[in-house]
Amino acid sequence: MDEIVKQSLVKWPNVPSCTGWLLLDRRGNWRMRDEAAQASGAAGVAIRHEALLGFINRNYEVDERGQWFFQNGPQRVYVELGYTPWVVRLSVDVDSALALHDQGGGGFEPAAVFVDEDGGILFADRAQPARIAVLHDHDLEIFSDHATLADHDGSLSGEFHWNAQLALPLQGIRRDDVAARFGFVASPAALA
């Protein structure tokens, strides 16, 4: 968390939090949701300002209830999640090594791979508790190039080959079970 944010929390400790105004979409875009977007259920406008994106990513945390938030100075802005609290991009470098990076640019070392009923790929990392991230859909081809996949009765199975050192079996998971299994709240506004 930025030092200036910590100082503002000391100076103004009782600023009310807000919900519904910030969304992390399924592709890792931060979106502002005005009252009209919230009322209509729209995703909102993508934030493109690099300095603001950096500020959000540096001050993105989770509370004791599993609700993710952006600490905007003294105000806690709870985040609506399009799917998971993290969205990762998969890339291959010039030496053919795979890398995963979250929406803030941080590294993500996979410990497990899941596939949901819609074919969405999710990675859990080695942290305790494990962070869960959905793979950006633009990277599904890279994923399939490094996986041995099979389709059994409409469900995907197989394994993902992480840098020739680790074969991670694909585990099935229902999309509706992801939040409970990994301990996060997708819509803090619903709890407000």
Structure description:
The chain has 2 domains: 3-83 and 184-191, duf1285 like fold, CATH 3.10.540; 86-179. The radius of gyration is 18 Å and the shape is globular. It has helices at 3-11, 35-40, 50-58, 140-145, 178-182, 188-191; strands at 18-24, 30-32, 45-46, 60-62, 68-72, 75-81, 86-92, 98-102, 110-115, 121-125, 132-135, 147-152, 155-162, 166-172. The chain has 6 helices and 14 strands. An 8-stranded mixed β-sheet has the order 8-7-11-10-9-14-13-12. Strands 3-2-1-6-5-4 form a 6-stranded mixed β-sheet. By secondary structure, the protein is of the alpha+beta class.
* Average pLDDT over all residues: 91
Task: Tell me about the largest β-sheet.
Answer: 8 strands, mixed
Outline the low-pLDDT stretches.
none
> How many strand segments?
14
Number of helices: 6
The domain tally reads 2
> What is the string of SSEs from the N terminus onward?
HEEHEHEEEEEEEEHEEEHH
Q: Kindly, what is the distance between the CA atoms of the first and last residues, rounded to a whole number of angstroms?
A: 24 Å
Report the structural category. alpha+beta
Please state how the strands of the largest beta sheet are arranged side by side. Answer: 8-7-11-10-9-14-13-12
**Portion in helices:** 10-25%
Query: Proportion of β residues?
Result: 35-45%
Backbone shape: globular
Radius of gyration (CA) equals 18 Å
InterPro entries: DUF2944
Protein name: DUF2946 family protein
Pfam family, one: DUF2944
Organism: Paraburkholderia antibiotica
